[in-house]
Design a protein that fits this description.
Layout: H1 6-24, H2 34-40, H3 45-48, H4 55-78, H5 86-98, H6 101-107, H7 111-116, H8 120-144, H9 150-164, H10 167-171, H11 175-183, H12 193-204
Helix pairs in contact: 1-2, 1-4, 4-5, 4-6, 4-8, 5-12, 8-9, 9-12
């Protein structure tokens, strides 16, 4: 770790993560390199190694940040006064996920490689943020769905969280993919992130 204040270290890490996020909007994971990321930062590519050892570690940090942001949304729903109906709860959770397209895009990637090529301490930090989202979902269901047993809630979580891995591919479709589906004569109804998420949650509840 480079010498410097914790504030400088945090700022440098944030700049690297922001650069990765910027590139990921127009490039694929496999095409993004540390050199490409370095070209978008205010310091040299070799300096990146002072903060992250691999490209996967940078993506894992971006991934963690997305979970932290989603957790803030879930906490906001949790802290609202009164109890929500199941339809209202589904609406609010689906709305929170519709705001997190970057998270959904990351979920659709090969997470095995990302996690395998990251240091254990960074993986643990990521898992803390991921685990907090599960805890927040548990709290939301416990508060707003008193008819659900612990087993019901556990079943919901173990269906819904894997379901999230497929939201992005089903809702973010290129014209090339649409044309291929049309030529294959597949009768497919395209939905928004909100629509597909809301319908899933409502059925699970």
């Amino acid at each position: 770790m480079p010498k410097g204040s914790p504030e400088l270290t945090a700022a440098r890490k944030e700049e690297i993560i922001n650069a990765c996020e910027q590139l990921y909007k127009s490039m694929s994971f496999k095409d993004i390199t540390l050199k490409e990321i370095g070209n978008v930062t205010s310091f040299t590519r070799t300096s990146i190694y002072n903060y992250f050892q691999t490209k996967e570690e940078i993506f894992l940090a971006l991934y963690e940040r997305e979970y932290v942001r989603w957790n803030a949304d879930l906490q906001s729903i949790l802290n609202e006064n009164g109890k929500l109906t199941k339809a209202q709860l589904a609406d609010k959770i689906a709305s929170s996920i519709a705001k997190r397209e970057q998270l959904l895009k990351l979920l659709s990637m090969n997470n095995y490689d990302m996690e395998a090529n990251s240091r254990p301490e960074l993986l643990v930090s990521f898992k803390v943020a991921y685990g907090e989202s599960i805890k927040n979902m548990n709290r939301l269901l416990t508060k707003n769905c008193p008819d659900m047993s612990e087993q019901d809630i556990r079943s919901f979580i173990y269906v819904f969280f894997p379901f999230m891995f497929g939201i992005y591919p089903y809702t973010s479709v290129t014209e090339k993919q649409r044309e291929a589906m049309k030529n294959a004569e597949v009768d497919f109804v395209y939905q928004t992130i909100f629509e597909i998420t809301y319908n899933c949650i409502l059925r699970l509840l």
